[in-house]
Specification:
The structure is a homodimer of 220-residue chains.
Chain A lengths: L4 E5 L12 H10 L5 E5 L1 H5 L1 H6 L7 E3 L4 E3 L1 H9 L10 H29 L3 H6 L1 H22 L12 H10 L12 H11 L2 H16 L5
Helix pairs in contact in A: 1-4, 1-8, 1-10, 5-7, 5-8, 8-9
Chain lengths: 220, 220
């Protein structure tokens, strides 16, 4: 088999560095011990009809392997996880638990976090006018984080008593809170995130993304 | 096999009726020709530690079958789809396309739509103060809807040239826009949604949810 190809951005501004969704795919491939090629794109390719045929929303990542082209970070991580026990146990009931928590990361925890992110990225006047809304959204996130922490309790991982693709996605979702103090208010969750970030596969994936941005940083 | 059990709310206010996420599971089971039992809960059960052990966030739906208890509507629909060709082709490459669009529905299209929904559900003074933010979020949704419509083109379905669990999820996501005029601005997408809603399995699922709410409506 040829090495799969991961499409990622050549460069993004600092606020997005270390958060772009190809990090999820790089991490999954590192956990699986699978080498990959980078395919780097910029704003022009993002808008091109050629790229839209691979990724209808012009986003990254896209994964191309010998068999097919896949988009959506969640779908790509699931695809990789289905091919290796490094990310998901082969037992069907345990695999279902892992997939449940993958969806929980992306459809229960991430949406309110992205909502806060969108508010904080607005021009200052618009963000300021929405400060009461922001407080309510932060409250919604707090409720979800506390529920998540209550579930985790003394567990080290979300499912199957081991690191899985569910922890991978949840960790990348919790990282989006890095410009807020919300995670610091739930220390057990902060520790959970740090524990997963300490994995060598995460460190390699993050370094690969950051190195790319450094190599392509705009000239001063 | 015993009939699976679907946990749903006994009653919700009108604005949420026809949108609560157990609709996705009811619809999937109807498409699969699988009968089910309802397990109805109210706010007290939602908060109970017993229920939190099944659903850590206190949400619905939960699916219980002979083998296990699953939460997250996306994970439940995937679990059902993996057991029947009614919702997902058995060909692995086509199944991957279906799963890709399932994640696109829940992680690319739904989050900005839910953001608008959260803004519109705020107390009037807070929503009014956030009207510029709302316009920007509506713009983000418009961009995504147009990308989705461009992908669909003359296609009837998202993946595999047939109705799948991807169309099921996407349709339930687009329905959340019913109190806005955003979908009306993309007629092909509005038609796509209506086409899927016309399926007998959807109609049965919607009727089952609405009947439950009618039976348990608070006394005037």
């Amino acid at each position: 088999m040829h090495q799969p190809q991961v499409t990622a951005f050549r460069w993004v501004p600092a606020f997005a560095q270390g958060l772009v969704r190809d990090l999820r795919v790089r991490w999954a491939l590192e956990e699986a011990g699978q080498g990959y090629q980078e395919h780097l794109i910029g704003p022009a390719q993002q808008q091109s009809s050629d790229y839209r045929q691979q990724q209808p929303f012009g986003q990254v990542p896209v994964l191309k392997d010998d068999e097919q082209t896949i988009f959506e970070s969640g779908a790509i991580v699931l695809h990789i996880a289905e091919q290796t026990t490094a990310l998901m146990p082969s037992d069907p009931a345990l695999a279902t638990q892992v997939k449940t928590w993958m969806f929980a990361a992306l459809n229960t925890i991430e949406p309110p976090i992205m909502m806060l992110n969108v508010i904080d990225m607005q021009p200052p006047a618009i963000a300021q006018a929405a400060h009461e809304l922001r407080a309510n959204v932060a409250g919604m996130i707090g409720v979800r984080l506390n529920s998540l922490a209550a579930f985790l309790g003394n567990r080290e991982y979300l499912a199957a008593d081991r690191f899985t693709s569910a922890d991978l996605l949840m960790t990348t979702v919790l990282r989006i809170l890095r410009t807020t103090d919300l995670l610091a208010t739930v220390p057990s969750l902060d520790a959970y995130k740090s524990r997963n970030e300490a994995r060598p596969a995460f460190q390699k994936a993050l370094a690969a993304q950051m190195d790319t941005f450094e190599r392509h940083a705009p000239q001063q």
